[in-house]
Amino acid sequence: MDADVRCQVEGMFRSTLADPNGLLVRESCIEFLLSIGGTPEEANALLKECDRGRDDTHISVTNFLDVLCGPAELAAGREAKDSAEQPPQTSEASDTGKQTLEASAKEPPLVQTPKVQSAPERIEEKPQIKESEVVKEAEEPSTEGKAEEQPAEPGPADPAAEEAPDKEDPNLTTTATTATAEGMQEDDSTATLPTPAEEVKVESEACDKGVEFHHDPSDMDWYYESSFMQSNRLVKVKEGKRWKEMDLLQAWNSHPIPRWPPRMPPCGPVSADGDPTSIGDAWVPVHVHVNPGLVGQWARQCTREYRPYPGEVMRKRYRIEHAIGAGHFTRAYLATDVETNEKVCIKRHNGLTVELLTDLLTIGRRIESVDPEFKCFSRLVEAFFDMVGYTVETLFEGRNCTEICRTNPMHFKNLDNLRVVAVGCLRGLKLLAEAGVVHCDMKADNFMWTKTDEGEPTVRLVDFGCSRLDSRLESGRNWSFAEGGAGHIGKWAPEMMLRIPITDKADVWGHAVALLELYCGRNMWNEEEDTVEYMLAQALGLVNSKSGLPEKLLRRSPLDIRQLYTPSPAYFPVQRLGVAPNISFKELRPATWGLACVLGDESEWDEMKTELANYVCKSMNLDPDDRPSAVELMSHKFVGMEAEAAASDLSP
User: Fold this and answer.
1) Where in the chain are the domains?
2) Could you give the CA distance from residue 236 to residue 532 in angstroms, rounded to a whole number?
3) Contact criterion met (CB below 8 Å) for 20 and 218
4) Burial tier of 374 (Cβ tally within 10 Å: 0-12, 13-18, 19+)
5) Does residue 11 sit in helix, strand or coil?
6) CATH of span 287-394
7) Spatial contact of 255 and 565, defined as CB atoms under 8 Å apart
8) Model pLDDT for residues 339-385, shown as the tens digit of each residue
9) What is the CATH number of domain 3-85?
């Protein structure tokens, strides 16, 4: 597809079908493919190519068009090649082309794309570079004067893993350590922002070096990798060896993992056996608003775009006050129940199906069985449909921890405040384990900083839209493998990445990652292009696993690990590049090892920070079988919950 046409088509998709984050509802993609003559089987097969293993209900516009029409970079490259090979036009042809352009300029464009608002000196066009080029300047500072490392011959041996340095290379840690200096001031978040003149200078230098730029749909601007992704990652990731597809498979065949792949157990039907709540099934009423003047998808799309409005009364009961938060798939509003005059939280869900609503109601009943007074969790009051799905929940007055971290970066530098987060998470996870529920989305956005009845600060867990049941209650069913995982990939435990059956210990991993992010203000996941491979490479660096993933963990994965990880003796993630027959794999490794890149120089840790590091390392044990549960972590010195842990041991 022509690059200009591709740009217009992408603009049309973003302006008409996609949400503000550039995501398409999967059902809308299927309807589009069917409307152009595709079969249901072809549509589903095509969409599988678009999935990134993060969410099975939404698809990125860019991924969808890349699979449908080919990558944008390839289209631009073909166009540049065609223009280079095209012979010079004669004067007659030039006049004809000029007349055609003048005629087309008088006609309005078929598709209007959003205008990029940028500074006068800001780069207006994305620099085109070849896909095969590797720009070291964007990943490794201060590489001048050094010989470029040549790829090693394919084979099982990996001396870099066996002879990993004990000390970090200062050239590799400059970006990570600068952002976490212990001496940062209260308003450090504004002090580190570059001036517009500095931005223009840096971007100009990046263009001169041929750095690839990425488009951010949230502000319609262009950013290059080293200016955004690398500086914001929790751990800096560096590129390792490049593998050809056949070389990687041959190395795996030479050193296979014994007893892999695992035998998949039979998937039994759902039964009441093993349900720890014993709440039984139920029928729940759900109200649906029927508007006699509203029929059809287009009518709904034109009517619901900006709803609900402030002052609007939903379901003749809840008066909308204002928006209080938003995520990829939901938007939360403060509302008043006109019958009781109580404040509630109303969530508008994008693409809420009856099946997903059933999941929310089921999780809500399980939570209510272990927290009947709702001291740790909000209560799901009811659900209704008014063109889209809405849920009504009791309101927790407070702020989510991500918002607090952004407005006051020093708040969670105080380890007493970070302990409050850890204690609140453990209390919530203990109850979820009793209910047989895995939260699956343990990010700081879902940690509400509130107060107890006594006025003491506490943290409560919210948003169970990604929750699933503990795999030990699933009669052999592995939803992680069947559904491609659930929740935010930045908080995925290794077992989720490997599609191993998930238990409550996956949330223990997630809350530990969130603690590190709150402390330093950086995140493992920063944007849509951050893949699972980058998440795992960062995790291996944090836990100081210089030989990669444990072999005993890989042995339990139903995935084809031969195309996802390097072979023995060190198992590191690889990222697939190119298309057949020119497929290659890029090995990803952490540039730093241990928690110093987050907590600062280890020699300067006091006793409390040392305990925090130990707490995090235990919570982030790569193997869930060796990872402690929430109840076991309550006895850790950092949180000081020995009494509650003892009470849990004595409870029946």
Assistant:
1) 3-85, 287-394, 399-650
2) 15
3) yes
4) middle
5) helix
6) 3.30.200.20
7) no
8) 999 999 999 998 899 999 999 999 999 999 999 999 899 999 999 99
9) 1.10.238
- CA-to-CA separations, 352 to 57, 386, 391, 392, 466, in angstroms, rounded: 10, 11, 10, 14, 12
Please tell me if the domain spanning 3-85 has the same topology as the one spanning 399-650: no
The pair of three-digit structure tokens given for residue 432, joined into one six-digit string: 């979820």
In which band, very low, low, confident or very high, does the pLDDT at 136 lie, cut at 50, 70 and 90?
A: very low
Cβ atoms of 331 and 323 within 8 Å: the answer is: yes
Give the integer Cα–Cα distance in Å for 176 and 596.
10
Say how many C-beta atoms besides its own lie within 10 A of residue 446's C-beta: 27
DSSP state of 391: E
- Whole-angstrom Cα distance, residue 561 to residue 555? 9
Token pair for 407: 């407005």
Quickly count: other Cβ atoms within 10 Å of residue 182's Cβ: 9
- Give the number of residues written for the chain: 652
Instruction: Locate all alpha helices (DSSP H) within 107-224, ordered by sequence.
Output: 159-162, 170-178, 188-191, 196-209
What distance in Å separates the CA atoms of residue 101 and residue 603, rounded to the nearest whole number?
Answer: 68
Contact between 462 and 473 (Cβ < 8 Å): no
Query: Is residue 490 within 8 Å of 233, Cβ to Cβ?
Result: no
DSSP codes, 20-69: TTSEEEHHHHHHHHHHTT--HHHHHHHHHHH--SS-SSEEEHHHHHHHHH
Q: Work out the angle at residue 635's Cα, subtended by the Cα atoms of residues 630 and 641, and round it to the nearest 5 degrees.
A: 90
Confidence of residue 71 (pLDDT cuts 50, 70, 90): low
Instruction: Name which CATH class applies to 399-650.
Output: mainly alpha
**Mean per-residue pLDDT for 262-284?**
79
Buried b (16+ CB within 10 A) or exposed e, 469-489: bbbebbeebbbbbeebbbbbb
Structure-token pair, residue 186: 């209260």
What is the rounded distance in angstroms from the CA atom of residue 327 to the CA atom of residue 407?
Answer: 18
Element (H, E) at 226: helix 225-232
Reduce the DSSP state of residue 549 to 3 states and report it.
Answer: coil
Measure the CA–CA gap between 328 and 305, rounded to whole angstroms: 15
Tell how strand 287-288 and strand 313-314 pair up: unpaired
Joined tokens for residue 192: 């580190």
Residue type, 473: L
Query: Could you give the C-alpha distances from 212 to 8, 125, 577, 580, 583, in angstroms and in order?
Result: 21, 11, 16, 23, 20
Pairing state of beta strands 380-386 and 287-288?
parallel
Strands annotated E in 327-477: 330-337, 342-349, 380-386, 388-394, 399-400, 437-438, 447-451, 457-461, 468-469
Choice among 184-188, 233-237, 415-419, 643-647 with the minimum mean pLDDT: 184-188
What is the spatial distance between Cα 134 and Cα 212, in angstroms, rounded to a whole number?
10
Q: How far is CA 230 from CA 1, 213, 216, 617, in A?
A: 32, 13, 15, 23
List, for residues 430-487, the tens digit of each pLDDT value. Answer: 999 999 999 999 999 999 999 998 899 999 999 999 999 998 888 778 899 989 888 8
